[in-house]
# Entry
Amino acid sequence: MPSRLRPFVPAIVFVLIVISAYAILRSQREGLVDFVVPHTAAVRFLNHEPLYRPDDGHYQYKYFPAFAVAMVPFTWLPYRVSELTWFTLTVAMAWALLKISIYALSDRRLSVRVLFWVTLLLNGKFLVKEVGFGQFNLPFALLLVGAVIAAQRGRGQMAGALVAVAVFVKPYALILVPWLALTIGWRAVVPFGLVMAGGLLLPVPFYGWQGNMTLLSEWLRTVTDTTAPNLMGPENMSFASMWAKWIGPTYTAARLALASVVVAVAGGLAIMLRRSRVAEPNYLEVAYFLVLIPLVSPQGWDYVLIIALPAYVLLLDRLRDLSLPWRVVAFTGVIFTSFTVWDVMRRTLYALSMQWAAVSVGAVLIALCLMRLRWKAIA
# Structure
């Protein structure tokens, strides 16, 4: 092979692997089932049609209207080509999220190679679902890790803007507003508010003021109305689903879920109040809230834990800082979240683990370990 072509070999191999994986996926089912939802919304946006339609059933569009605008470029290609393009991008973003999450972790104890491959193993379950479904949690996570890096470098305005952009990818990025306000202050909150205002008003030239208000109202209705039917889904790992599975979908379960959310968020605030006693506080704080997101969101499916990849990186790197009992807690959390897989557990055990909300419990244990790391660092 000519020497001038050798630098392109890795890219060529990557493309061939991705195309092969996509062909295998296509042979097993009808493509990326979640990618089609915002793609359809983008087509409707261009035609000035309603975006939120109950007759779409389980695959109703649940993103903000502005996200449909971001998806418009994918409508310029034939659907199969746009689907393959997104599949390729998600594979690349998975690699990027791993590398950037390791890069952003200060004072690493383990080598980059060890962190990369072990974290990849622990997040393999979530990555396979994310890429196979054509989901959008990877760009969401990349934006928030970017906000961490911006905060580490003293660029509060950039951190606020990145969190606001992430809201339009997945609304539950709003959980990081307290982190922006309490740790960075107005330098982050002002750009956050400006980007949010711009994104909310983005559809106005296409739908008009009243039409945009209708879209936002329909978005809220869709998110609210589709929560209850998904609550008892086996892969729903939210606090609401966890309590509903344990004691039934009752009023008491709803109140206990709300109490769990309050306690979990309060734990994050307690972590932030002690940030001045550690050298670099931002990574752990955002990692904690990323673990919380699928627990707090009523429609938090287990594969959403891919956004918590920085938490796995941190916990793996700092595992030796924990006492033996806490290492057992961390190990249990990882087993419950990362290895509750049908192919590993088979039908009966897998069904029991879903019935008893094992993934939810595992995520709670990981969050507790992150809190323990902050307290131990203080001590």
Remarks:
- The chain has a mean pLDDT of 87.
- The chain has one domain: 31-378.
- The radius of gyration is 21 Å.
